[in-house]
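Q: Predict the bound structure with heme C.
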Amino acid sequence: MSAVQGFIQRFRVQIVIGIAAMGIAMQFVRFIVPAFEIHNPAARQTIPWDSAQTLRLWRESCADCHSNQTQWPFYAYIAPFGWPVASDVHEGRDELNIDQDRRVELDEMIEVIREGEMPPGQYIMLHSDADLNKNEKDALIRGLQATYADRAED
Ligand code: HEC
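A: Predicted complex:
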């Protein structure tokens, strides 16, 4: 028997307890580390959506990362799987948050939709309804233009 096997044999109960304890301890990290926090702060403003369709398309493809109305999936609550989810949402909100920002960069929003840069590829893999077709992209762009006509940054 090698030294490693001997060690495992001798301390297997302690090893199992140690791993379980780490797994449990990980679940508390999101309450302490801001980047992994899961929460939806109250919206600071109401958005005058031009139509229910624009709102639906926005919700399906952008809202999870660019608003305070994230629909957190169940695995977001399970560490460590939830850590990259939360940090993506925070990064997206920092860049653009329609519930907080007074003005939005409309041209940039249109560009990333048109070029297929947003939503990010790994998000689409898990949310197939976020994968907008050409008509839906056009409708979302027109809807955002109508909704943000007066509140876009030049
Ligand atoms: C899974 C989360 C997620 C989703 C869904 C998402 N974004 Fe993003 N978005 C990000 C992150 C993270 C960044 C910042 C890093 C980057 O630019 O890749 C970002 C950056 C942006 C930027 C700034 C662009 C830039 O190049 O700096 C715009 C504009 C934007 N997103 C618009 C959208 C729109 C419009 C949608 C829906 C069609 C969308 N995003 C969907 C996470 C997301």
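A: Residues 33-147 form one domain.
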